[in-house]
Structure formats: structure tokens, C-alpha cells
Amino acid sequence: MATPLLAGHAGATEGYFLEGYGTREKGVGGAGAADSRDPLSLSINPAGLVDVGHQYTLGLTAFSPDRGYSTSGPGFVAPGHVQSGRGLFPIPNGGYSRPVDEKSAWGVAVYGNGGMNTTYSPNYTSQFFGSPMCPQTGVYCGRNAGVDLNQAFITAGYAQRFGNLSVGFAPVLAVQIFKARGLAVFGPFSSAPNELTDHSYNWSVGAGVRAGLQYRVTDKFRIGVAGSSPIWMSPFENYKGLFANQGDFDIPANITAGVAYDVLPTLTLLADWKHIFYSQVPSVGNWSTLQAPLGVMNGPGFGWSDIDVIKVGAEYRGLDKLALRLGYSYNNNPINSRDVTLNILAPAVTRHHISGGLSYYVTPSSSIDLAAVVSPQGTVSGIERTPLGPNPLRTINLYLSTFEITAGWTHRFEAAPAPVVAKY
Length: 424
What we know:
By secondary structure, the chain is mainly beta. It is built from 3 helices and 17 strands.
């Protein structure tokens, strides 16, 4: 079983990254590179810590994905409409921030990432069932099939203000666990078939760093830029016959830029752009159709391309005891049509994400925070490609839709000592 701090599910929203980690960030579509108001701003831009003040926040997300695939025509994988089981996942988050003085602050945050999860029943049966190449039932002729990737991040940051410029730095520790089932049919095409599938959960640990800047252009207008290095992880030894580079599964780098504008003292508009470098991690970005054994150096991966994400949001704080939020984000699809067969395991194909949220102030210093995110069904289609080669008579259509709701609690011990822009 995964520990409570680890959370995984089938292709969250931005590939396998969530659109936001804190309740406030989720409500505004994941934007916030230029506007920080709680300790989870560490997950976007650590420079914002200097404006957050002394507070803590805790939250829990209930994430519900509907994912699977459908087929047309004869082929190797189980035909028809095939739906993954297990439809609800808990994802925790929490953070604490504290000023050092009027120009500096530190904070810590813990949060779960999206990860990937699919669980396909052995009741689905390939048309080749009973032949030597398909001795068992199941999507890939291996009975229960699927993967479970769980990730947790722990980060501590420091921010310093220099006039209108704030600078932040936050090392990140990551822990992930992985399990794969029902992939024995790929054994003849693996460099290490005994480390390919059907092992228990395998742990991996690693570290990277996130850093950022925020700059006050005027009293109402701010810009922010942040980036995360790759998080270099130890390999999954039990799955070095599946992942390229003998089990490596690093977490890709990303960069973010954003703006925030206070239309009113109580109304802020936000917009962010984010780029995720999936293609730079061989086990994720290399084509699944490469003519090389699974697990070798620079061998086949899931074929994910880099993606760009656009996020926009609004927050209104003009009501008594109540703050309201709306958001929207869009990302292009990381999965190419040539890689659909392997990505039955990770159908991360949602593009649109609509969100809303609120904070209700139980006391002047404490609030109950709520957010919801809906991602309508996304799809990608391609010709089935198995280890036996492409099948031009079979088309696979991957699909994913998601719904999540987050509840949290925030307590503010005191106002920020010298905020760049007042936090109402």
C-alpha cells in the first residue's frame, strides 16, 4: 500500500502533474507565479514566500478519474470499450510559512503529485486468447493489467526582497513508488524480462531545486518567473526491464511565467504559462516504437512530448467573510498517436480544466477553503502498435476525464510584515 503522503492516479491534468497543489491554487486554475498568498506558493514560485506571512494550510483532495480505451477492428489488445477500475484517490497537501524579518521569509510544503494509475480487470480478453502469444485473459494477455505510480514532494524554501524584486530558492526532496502488472507479453522484447512486471511496489528517492523571481512593476501589476530543475531519482531496480536506462524514472523539469493585476484592491486577475519537459526523461519521452529492447540505455519509453499550459484565474475578496475564485487552464496533449498501445497504461489526454473555489473565514485569521476542478473527456487515437508491429486494421482510442474536490483549512498567525501588495 502507498503511504498517505503518496498519491497517484491516471494522468492527472498536465500529463502527470496536477494543475495546482494548494486549495487556493486549484481554485484559480493553478495560476499564481506572480501572486502568492499561502505556503503552497512554494510549489509554484518560492519568491512569493516573502509576501505570505506567518500561516499554515492543510488540505485533502478527492480525485476521481474515468479512464480507459476503446477499439475498432481486429488486433492484439482486448477489444471493445475497456474501462480502468479504481475511481477515487486521496491527495494531501500542507504548508507552513514564517517571516524572518520585514524583507525575508522561509517555509515548508508537502504535497502529492498526480502520478499514473490504471487497473484493468482480467475479464477483458484479447482476440488472440488461447494462442501461444496470449495464454491468459486480460488487456495484454497477463490477467490484471495496469501501473501505479505514486509521488510525494517535500520542499523547504527561503525568499528575500530587494526593493521591488523578490527572490526565492527551494530544494525539493521527492519520493516515488511504482508497480506494474500484467505485462509479461512484453518479456521477449525486454532487456531484463525478470524485472519487467508483477513485482511488489519499488521505492525511488531523489532531489532537485526550484527557484523564482517576483517583481512589482506598479502597485497593481506584478510579474513572476520560476523554474524547477529535473528531480534526479534513484532507479526502479525491480522494473529495469520496463523503463529506459535500466529503471530510471526522473521527474521532468518545468518553467513558469505569470502576471497578476489588481483590478480593485479586492479583485485580482492572474495568468500563467508553463512548459513541462517530458521529452527530456527517456523513460517518459522516448518513442514506445523504438527498435530496441525495453530497459536499455535510451530505450523505448511512453513517447510523451513536452507540453505547454496556459492558466487564467480570478480571485474576489470583497464579500464579508468570503473569498471567491474561478479558473481555467489548457494544455496540449503529451501522447502521440503512434504510442497509444503502451499508453493504455497511462492515458493522460485531458486538455481543458475548469475550476472554482472559495474561502470562508470562520474567524478573522482562519478559513475553511474549498475548490473543485472538472476536466472534460480528452481523447487521442492511433493505430495499434504491439511488439509484433503495427496493425493497420486496429485503431485504439484513449480517453480520460477527471473530477476533483479539495477541502482545506488555513490559519494566519499575523499579517505579513511588509507586503508588496496588501493581501485582503
